[in-house]
Amino acid sequence: MTTTTAPWWRSAVIYQVYIRSFADGNGDGVGDIAGIRSRLPYLKSLGVDALWINPWYKSPMADHGYDVADYREIDPLFGTVAEAEQLIEEAHAHGIRIIPDIVPNHSSDQHAWFRAALSAGPGSPERERFVFRPGRGPGGALPPNDWDSRFGGPAWTRVPDGEWYLHLFTPQQPDLNWQHPDVHAEFESVLRFWFDRGVDGFRIDVAHGLVKDPELPDLAGGRPTHPFWDRDEVHDIYRAWRKVADEYPGDRAFVAEAWTDTPERLAAYLREDGLHTAFNFDFLMTAWDAKDLRAVIDDTFAMLGTVGAPATWVMSNHDVMRHASRYGRRAARKWVANESYVPAGPADLELGTRRARAAALLTLALPGGAYVYQGEELGLPEVEDLPEEVLQDPVWERSGRTERGRDGCRVPIPWYGRTAPYGFSPEDATAAPWLPQPADWAPRTVAAQTGDPASMLELYRAALRVRRGHPAFGDGSLSWLDAPDGVLAFRREPGFVCVVNLSAEPYRLPDHTSVLLTSGPVEDHRLAPDHAAWLTV
Predict the structure, then answer these.
(1) Which residue among 49, 207, 356, 534 is least packed, with the fewest CB closer than 10 Å?
(2) Integer CA distances (angstroms), 141 to 47, 130, 135, 137, 377, in order
(3) What contacts 24+ positions apart, CB below 8 Å, involve 404-409?
(4) Is 148 a catalytic residue?
(5) pLDDT digits (tens, 9 = 90+) for 71-101
(6) What pLDDT sits at residue 336?
(7) Is 377 helix (H, G, I), strand (E, B) or coil?
(8) What is residue 223's predicted lDDT score, i.e. its pLDDT?
(9) Rounded percentage of the chain residues whose pLDDT exceeds 70
């Protein structure tokens, strides 16, 4: 009898590296590939399986790398292709896989294709690779339709010859025309370029975008299908990409950033011939409420069961407020997809940290894979008081300075020391970190938390160590146990139970043979509010 090992991506814990803010190797105040390489021993000791690295490609940095000028070059701010190859090799030697971002919905206005399109003029083949249209109204002075940019303002910019081009994000990020064969061929070539250099997969930015209704209809008035989000035609693209990935050994994999209206629509991305996994944004957006969390967990398994895909659980990333600060709002709530999270009142960080510790045990115990956003293992909160003059997220300016944007979750993480830059940059650095770090982060550094059994870092290390060694963890299933309102309790085989108390009263733990791990002290077998426990039974 032969046995088969499940692909790594079905149960991996993937650590998100927001490269600008992880570790600065050359002292210019911005994180880089050299910094990541220097911290590989830390990541191995943490116990993660792979790194998702935000865009490292050549870019003018209008949106911090999500405006790509050359998909086959590393931006000099971060390093070189040769350094990327060294990182991949060294990470693999540590047993860590590498998953870079890929940005297929749009490029940069400095991309060679777009510069050629501007030079070639209306009606040229070069413009067909993007979405250029004449304007409406007298002299074509009005945009072609009523679409808005996700970052504020219209989704169209006029060029000197009178035509307009589409950009669902900033004007420096022109949307590509995925009805053009050149675009398909180029991105399949880019995938192969990086697969040939050893990357283990890709995270796909705006995976639900790419294809637009060729009629470019107005949004006003309503339509049976959205003209630019989650269109059925996008799945043909990913079926072709899956074929490319399957040409390579080692279970190369994709993860989709796909925002959809229903679980059924998300499942369509994960069919057997499509993408491997997708972020579970419903889980991320759910309030600290037992009933709501259980509903999202059940809906996730029901949806993924139709296509045989694993779940992926995520609480924070580079686009949302850090969950220690979200959970620190007593009025924590679920928010609507594709809308900005608006915090309700000031954060109680003691409460938020307590809940974040419990949430970590919940997330890492659930069947499937999980994502850890850099710094969450340190319990970092959102930096909500950054001075306006340092804000760099394009959302700030595009919204007319009404939305502060995402800089608060992107502040460089602290490694050691009593004062900034807390080891983020070398001691002989020539520049301060690109975003300022809080003056009170010394207790949150890696060095300060290492060896402290009560720290968030040691909780994550212990949880990942148990997860890696216990046969009940990873891909599979769970069965819910009877528990009062406000308590989540489930069993996984063989012999593991997770209990999370989201109620206002202590909860007596079920019968068990031993306690594997708890998010905080347990007295007289009673689990305090906003605490979690892992048990053997």
Answers:
(1) 49
(2) 56, 20, 6, 6, 51
(3) 406/318, 406/319, 406/320, 407/383, 407/435, 408/321, 408/322, 408/382, 408/383, 408/384, 409/316, 409/317, 409/318, 409/319, 409/320, 409/321, 409/322, 409/373, 409/382, 409/383
(4) no
(5) 999 999 999 999 999 999 999 999 999 999 9
(6) 55
(7) helix
(8) 78
(9) 97
Strands (DSSP E) contained in 271-311 are: 277-278
Q: How many CB atoms sit inside 10 A of residue 484's CB?
A: 11
Q: Is the pLDDT of residue 333 over 60?
A: no
SS3 at position 265: helix
- Which one of 63, 83, 205, 407 is the catalytic residue? 205
Q: In terms of DSSP bridges, do strands 97-102 and 50-53 run parallel, antiparallel, or are they unpaired?
A: parallel
Six-digit token pair at 174? 């022109």
3-state secondary structure 88-122: HHHHHHCCCEEEEEECCCECCCCCHHHHHHHHHCC
Burial class (CB within 10 angstroms; exposed 0-12, middle 13-18, buried 19+) of 460: buried
Residue type, position 470, single letter: H
| Cis bond upstream, residue 421 (ω within 30) | yes
Confidence of residue 467 (pLDDT cuts 50, 70, 90): very high
Residue 3: pLDDT over 50: no
d(CA 322, CA 431): 26
- Between vectors from CA 104 to CA 99 and to CA 110, what angle results, nearest 5°? 110
Active site residue 247: yes
**247, 264, 273, 505: which one is catalytic?**
247
Q: Residue 192 carries which side chain, given as an amino acid letter?
A: R
- The beta-carbon contacts of 489-496 under 8 Å, at least 24 apart in sequence, are 490/365, 491/537, 492/365, 492/367, 495/536, 495/537, 496/365, 496/470, 496/472, 496/534, 496/535, 496/536, 496/537
198's tokens: 């050893």
CB atoms within 10 A of CB 223: 12
CA 372, distance to chain mean position in Å, is 9
